[in-house]
Amino acid sequence: MNGGFYISRLCAWAPGIETSGEWGQWAQGKREIVSAAKSPEIVFTDSMFRRRLSQISKMTVHVVHGLLPVKEDTKMFFVSFRGELSRQYQINKMLIEEKSLMPAAFSFSVFNAPAALASIALGLKGGYTALYPGNNSFVSGLASAQAAFCNTQSELIFVYADEQPPPEYECFVKNFPPPLAFAFILTQKPQPSSVPLMPLEAGEDSPHDFLKRLLLRGDINAS
User: Fold this and answer.
1) Strands of 75-79's sheet in order across
2) Is 3 exposed, middle or buried (0-12, 13-18, 19+ CB in 10 A)?
3) Is 223 a member of any domain?
4) Distances (CA, A) of 73 to 1, 41, 141, 212
5) What is the extent of the structural domain holding 117?
6) Is residue 57 part of a domain?
7) Structural domains counted in the chain
């Protein structure tokens, strides 16, 4: 599955990996992402703004910023399997222990918060879609992004991000995939330094596997 789509301007972030060379080592299995709640610094944003952001929101802002500049009307397509999991946990804890909820805490916990906050931080005006892919399939998320081109899109910002889960979840789910975020420009026509979207099959790839395969091709690097 690729249908003539192209990827360009890849930007990725994960704890413990900082350079294109280190991303290459990770793709080759010579380096590991650190399973930690560390976040990118995003010093290009207002300090009062970024201090309120979660790990996943900071990661999303960081990787989208790495693609700038883009056309003013470029739409963002955000995919995540865990969303604002840490904030959701804190809200559930607050409801159980205090029987109340702060409106501000709720507004930053919704699934689309990372995409919305990236749009605000970076002045993006093209709108966004936030999607949890069906059947835990990253491929279905990519397919949904491609379907958006039926609405006369010329290009999309595709974003995947998942943060480090709270330690309290470890008793329910073992071996969570480590935190990772990446973004790229998706088009139907080749662009400068773009590469074809490689064929994928449903259920074949996780986001981590997809990024590794993309980097191992050697014709695109993560910044």
Assistant:
1) 128-131, 75-79, 155-162, 180-187, 6-13, 195-196
2) exposed
3) no
4) 27, 27, 21, 30
5) 6-216
6) yes
7) 1
Angle subtended at Cα 132 by Cα 35 and Cα 214, rounded to the nearest 5 degrees: 60
Task: Please report, as a single letter, which amino acid is at residue 192.
Answer: P
pLDDT per position as a tens digit, 77-95: 999 998 888 887 778 777 7
Q: Is 99 exposed, middle or buried (0-12, 13-18, 19+ CB in 10 A)?
A: exposed
- CATH number for the domain that contains residue 184: 3.40.47.10
Q: Encode pLDDT of 14-69 as tens digits.
A: 999 999 999 999 999 999 999 999 999 999 999 999 988 999 999 999 999 999 99
* Residue 222 placed within a domain: no
Give dist(CA 75, CA 155) in Å, integer. 8
Longest distance between any two alpha carbons in the chain, whole Å? 55
Instruction: Report the sign of the C-alpha dihedral through residues 119, 125, 126, 129, in that order.
Output: positive
